[in-house]
Amino acid sequence: MLSAKSLFQEILANDESFRLFCSIAASGESQGGWENARIAALVPPSERALAPKISRHGADEDKHGRIFNALLKKRGLEPVPVPPETDYTMLLERHGIGLAHDKLKSDQPLTLQDIVTYLAHSRVTEQRASEQMELLRRHFADHPDIGRAVRMISGDEDNHLAYCHEELLRYAARGHGRAIQRTLRESALAEIRIYRDVSLAVMDHMGRILGWSRPKAAVLAAGIHAVYAWERIAGWRRMVSLSMPERRDALGGPATSAPEFA
Description:
Number of helices: 8
Order of helices and strands: HHHHHHHH
Strand content: under 5%
Largest sheet: none
Radius of gyration: 18 Å
Helix content: over 70%
């Protein structure tokens, strides 16, 4: 019987599929680290109090990239180039989710609206990241090879999501509520399409590596399309709600260091 756990166990057991999985994950996390670092550097003077939290966010993402690369190194594997159709972060930026890289590469300070937009986009993508890592934590928290990494990254992603909720509520109280809700809705509807397309592409690559039969590949593809259908009808709404998190000031301290993998 196909399940998320059995599927990932299959990917984990094969060096080439595990290599691709970690390479995709490391690339996306490292890109997120760069983006947050640039945003922190370009925060407008009126919002400088937020810069340390954005920097912490970026440091966490960069740490996650190092963790995935360390998992590869532990198995004696090298990263592989990320197929463009599986590059979630790049595709998000190409479709306008997140601040444009041209803007981040300049030295022009961001605007207040840019910061609100960044937080709204992050609230959507961090929902996805938190849910994905919670799934892995539920099944692999005690795994001898990846358990410690899964627990650490999952906790960080939960912190990132809490931070987005808290900061967006603060900006909503300052009169940006309509802009936030509009951006959240647009971002969520775009993200679910990109996530579907990336999921299909990743499963296609994994299927070739692992030699999946056509019926098995078809069942997995149908599952991905079914998830998208649910998200398109109603599931996207979970990405746009805002509530004060139990974890207040979740990014208020320094980033934790990445664990060593012997």
